[in-house]
Amino acid sequence: MEQKNKKPKGRFTSVAVRPTAADHSFNLVVDIFLMVLLVIIAVPLWSTITLSFRPNDYIGNNLQGMFLAPWQWSNAAYKALLGNAGFVLAFGNSVKILIGGVVTALLLTIPLAYVLSIHTLPGRRYLNLLIIIPYVFNVGMIPSYLLVTNLGLIDKLAAVFLPGAISTYNCLIMRSFFEGIPNELKESARIDGATEIQVLMLVILPLSKAIIMTIGLFYGVSFWNDFFHAMLYLNNNQLQPLPILLRNILMASGMNEYVEVSAFGDAPIAAIKAASVFMSAIPMVIAYPFIQKYFTKGTLLGSVKG
Amino acid sequence: MVQKSGTKQLIREIKRHRSVYVLLAVPFVYYIIFKYIPIFNGQIAFKDYMALDGVLGSSWIGFEHFRTFINSYYFVELLRNTLMYSFGKLIFSLPLAIILAIAIYESNRPHLRKIVQTLAYLPHFLSWVIMYGILLALLAPGDGILNDIIKMFGGKPIDFLTNTDAFPWIVILSDAWKEMGWSAIIFIAALMGIDPSLFEAALVEGANSWQRVRYITLPSIRPVILIVVLLRLGTILDAGFNQIFMLYSTPVLSVADIIDTWVYRQGLLEFQFGLATAVGLFKGVIGMFLILGSNRLVKRFGGNPLF
Amino acid sequence: MKRTCTVCIALVALLSLVSLPLFSQGTADQAKASGPTTIELWYGAAITEAGPPPADWVGFQIIKDKLNIDLKLTALPSNESDQDVKVQAAAAANNLPDLFMVRRDVLTRLVPQGLVAPVDDLYEKMPIRTAKHYDEVSRSHARFNGKTYGLADPGSINKNEGLLIRKDWLDKLGLSVPKTTDELLAVMRAFTFNDPDGNGKHDTYGYGAFQEINNYEAWPGRRLEPIFGAFGVDGTWNMTASNAGLNILKPEFFDAMSLLKQMADEGIIDPNWLAYKKDDFRAAWKQGRFGIMREQNAAFAAQANYAPFDKNFPNGEWIIIDPPTGPKGHASIGPYTAGFRIYAISAKAVKEGKKDKIAALLEWMASDEGYYLLGWGVEGVNYTKDANGIPVAANLPNPDLAFSAPGGQTVTQLRNMVFYNGDIELYARYPKYITATSKKEMSALDVLRVMQTKKWTPAVGSDTLPIPNADLKRFYEQGLSEFITGKRSLTRDNWNKWIDEFKSLGGQDWNDKGVAFAKENNLLN
Q1: Where does the signal sequence lie (chain A) (predicted)?
Q2: Running DSSP on this structure, what letter comes out for residue A55?
């Protein structure tokens, strides 16, 4: 709690120590690594951004396109995308799936991860096994499809997120963070007569904001971009979420018999594809800076096992 | 320990944790319905599945589908390619992600750190369709940037994307490129949990930055690294269908075809769902062995096991 | 570990038992007896990116009032393999919709499962539609064991592609139109090495292509068929009665491969061709990268597609040429079949007594009312008719709702179910226009008509022949491409060895089955 307010002076601490040559070389290596990485990441991103603003009659290749002057940019792709007849509807459906999915997923994952993190729990080993088996044995599409059909979930938005509402991967990652929280805190609460639910609510959760948000983000991104389940389980045209719309756009040129007409007006297909990338990153771009605020050093007291 | 007292203790333990079972109830039911019913339906791996007869009504055919898969013409090659890609990615992408996380954590240039942290994950959202466009611009034999450079120095252009020697590297490196920042998020989150007082102690003892990373930072996030590695081993035969499916072409099939692409062509597109499920189970058995084995190793060396 | 395994298995077994009661097969909700009949239709969208008809589309009400049908629409995914996955998943759960579009390959798998109903008795219930849509070729397209299991509606127009060459490049280099494969090679070399665009850089190539493969145009696929046509081995199958069989087994195939290999080795085919996907290829000719290609009429000549080329090369001109003649006098643009789009009826729908309603719906679609409503929308809102009675997007109160504008495209999503490539459609689809920069008059319809006069190889029905299993298909494609890239060296010996291996892997069997099927169904010419 303290660390939040106290701005560390040095990199980590208030203790002032003269940096050695090794420290300098370390800093140099870190900075060079990050800068090289920045370039490596920025190039494809920039190329995608410029591609999304490319006018229809532009004919240079992707490399030349990266140096297209901003005053020659065209926003036709974004206009076509946002003005698409189905866009508002699809966006709304996606938001519903996102919110419903993240809430459900966290409500299911947090208690499970917590229970699995209790070392003294009898049968813990088998419980862990129980959740790892379905993770390792992926029986594929049809067995799940049969289940969703039989549960009557076809044409329900919940069909998109329910089958993935507990991801074993996310759950076990969360478990390992919960395990990192010093045992003394939990034990002292238990000795004070707290039930496990209270321990979870009062001890664990306040210390785990960052990881819960991170896992929530992972869920959110996967639901937001889930194309496959939406394609399988949603027949009603009015329920189609954004990934279906985007996929239809992305694949459009591959399928159209009537290549002469396009719903895009004067936006080139490649630009639309590029612009649609940024649609899929929306929740991340909005949420991540917010979460980063919780990524302050020392906030997750003790992933460190003492 | 005597059996009787063991049972007693168990009962006591269960009583002590009874509120746990309240927390466990809903996720448990969820697992039964959404994870175990599909596994039950997975019996079609041993059946000649007929849609009209349903899962229970279809006739048993034993290990026929498994035999079809294992005896298929390209089986050995598929297995080799799959393992090559998944281990390749594990060996390249994962350490890179960890290094990136540590670099972001350790950098004392706040602006650089912030920019990298905000941008690094974005390539994750570039679909492979888009990535292919970028790779083509870089690597195309006719006018790719890299080949333009090679030609400038008088070399012969290389058909990176359709060359069996180059293709595996393209797959592994492009995966690292795209996913490194995304995978790093979880390690950054773990790093944020390190107790700063540990560093102070290290400083006082005169440790330099390299030593600090080696003796404090890395060990601190070891539990998370282990979990990630163990979980990746469990799905070791998933080598990244979407990526391969987008990048491969006929000339490189011998090094590009993986189990999942084979299943896609053979199983899904030809209504052989029993076969597809059987391959899923096959992959699961291998994954389970790896997980159990490595979990043992972890335990032996005093790590934090998966179970 | 042993104990762990035992417990694992016990757990799985236990949980499976627990879950047993929760699991039951088949939840087909029975249609209510009274009120309108619900018909679920999974259609292939005409313009995939434009979104489905809105919930308040007038068509729904008309169909309800006239036919007492409650039409429930589902747009299939835009991508063929996604469509296959969706349809097959629904099939596996015995949950197919009443009426759905399906590819023939998939239909082949559904028929033995008993999931689709024969439609032979439907034709006489829909006289108008049958006259326009279903001839004998169409009926036999989806025929299995003597019964037709799907309504094969006219799809793409046949022979709608042509071999195109840059006339301006020929003129600049003082060359004439190549007539033989040797002349073609010479032109390709000149296009590659003699700087036809005069920019002083070596950035042009002779031939442009990408791998576009399907059942009847196996590797290297459609874009290179004119090369293989010069040796009489275009297409997967030879469909002549005298020489029926897989083309790959014919001796001439080796010669065609040698020519392609020569093109690749000399660098006169765009070296990117193996890496290109469709969009890259189409972008490449607009960038002036190559001077000879096989392209589709609308992809080449329709306004939006030609515009970038026109702007960048106002003096550029593509002309449609005859396919080059090979050493033995063969020449062909490629094989042609009749393109169909199959709509199948699920066995479930027939069981629920919906067959007549489906027939009524389809017949209504073929009536004038349905034809114009589904094809162009509402007259005066989405289209007007010109003097010749052809729907045009002019003189509309709100041009944004025109059938060709984004606002109006949603109401014509079902047009593939009513179109049969009639003249009205073609005129409406391919209007004449003046190009923006060079002020040329262009029409994709004129282009189409010229393309259709060129020499093609009749191969109707070759797309219905048996398909190889996935491993054999891979062996075929991988092997051929490795001969071209040089991973295998293309000598007679090597080739024969490879062919032998292909045969023993099931290639011979595939060949024999195909020939037998073709004979049985009278597909040979």
Answers
A1: none
A2: -
CB of A4 within 8 Å of a chain B CB? The answer is no
Contact in structure between C91 and B271 (CB atoms under 8 Å):
yes
Same domain flag for C323 and C287: yes
Q: Give yes or no: residues C140 and C187 share one domain.
A: no
Amino acid at the residue A234: L
How far apart are alpha carbons C195 and C203 in whole angstroms? 8
Q: How far is B301 from chain C (nearest CA, A)?
A: 17
| Sign of CA pseudo-dihedral C311, C315, C320, C321 | negative
**Contact indicator for B195, B173 with CB cutoff of 8 Å:** no
Q: What percent of chain A has pLDDT over 90?
A: 27
Does the residue C419 lie in any domain? no
Q: pTM of the entire structure? A: 0.88
Is residue C273 situated within a structural domain?
A: yes
Average pLDDT of chain B, as a whole number: 87
CB contact under 8 Å between C471 and B50, yes or no, is: no
Domain that holds residue C141: 37-155+340-375
Query: Which domains, from first to last, does chain B contain?
Result: 74-300 (1.10.3720.10)
B6-15, B118-127, B256-265: range with highest mean pLDDT: B256-265
Mean pLDDT of C502-519: 94
Note whether C209 and C332 are same-domain residues.
yes
Q: Chain B contact for A190, CB < 8 A?
A: no
User: Could you say which of C375, C398, C428 is where a domain stops?
Assistant: C375
Q: Which fold has domain A81-292?
A: MetI-like fold (1.10.3720)
ipTM of the complex in this document: 0.87
Closest CA to B168 of B80, B94, B232: B80
Subunits with at least 3 CB pairs below 8 A relative to chain B?
A: A, C
On whether both C200 and C326 belong to a single domain, the answer is: yes
Average pLDDT over residues B189-213: 81
Give residue limits of the domains in chain A.
Answer: 2-80, 81-292
d(CA C358, CA C350) in angstroms, rounded, equals 9
Count how many domains chain C has: 2
Residues C102 and C173 in one domain: no
Which is nearest to C154 in space by CA: C171, C129, C191, C187?
C129
Instruction: Please tell me which chains touch A, using 3 or more CB pairs under 8 Å as the contact test.
Output: B, C
User: Is the domain of C178 the same as that of C292?
Assistant: yes
Rounded average pLDDT over A14-25: 72
| Cα angle C103, C104, C106; round to 5 | 70
d(CA B226, CA A54): 45
Task: Using CB atoms, pick whichever of C7, C92, C406 lies closest to residue A263.
Answer: C406
Note if the bond before A55 is cis, omega within 30 degrees.
Answer: no
Taking the C-alpha atoms of residue A252 and residue C77, their distance in angstroms, rounded to an integer, is 10
Predicted local distance difference test score (pLDDT) of residue C403: 85
- Residues C140 and C184 grouped into a single domain: no
C139 lies in the same domain as C265: no
Contact B126 A277 (CB under 8 A): yes
User: For residue C215, what is the domain's CATH number?
Assistant: 3.40.190.10
Sign of the four-CA dihedral C24, C28, C29, C34: negative
Q: What is the pLDDT of residues C430-452, one digit of tens each?
A: 888 898 888 999 998 999 999 99
In angstroms, the CA C272 to CA B139 distance is 10
Cβ proximity of C31 and C352 under 8 Å: yes
Within 8 A by CB and 6+ apart from A38, the residues are B112, B115, B116, B119
Residue among B36, B140, B142 whose CB faces C15 most closely: B36
Is residue C369 included in any domain, yes or no? yes
Q: Is A115 on the interface with B (CB under 8 A)?
A: yes
CB contact under 8 A, B104 and A165: no
- Comparing C218 with A269, the larger pLDDT belongs to C218
What CA–CA distance (Å, rounded) separates B11 from B75? 50
Structure tokens at C110: 């559904």
Per cent of chain B over pLDDT 70 is 96
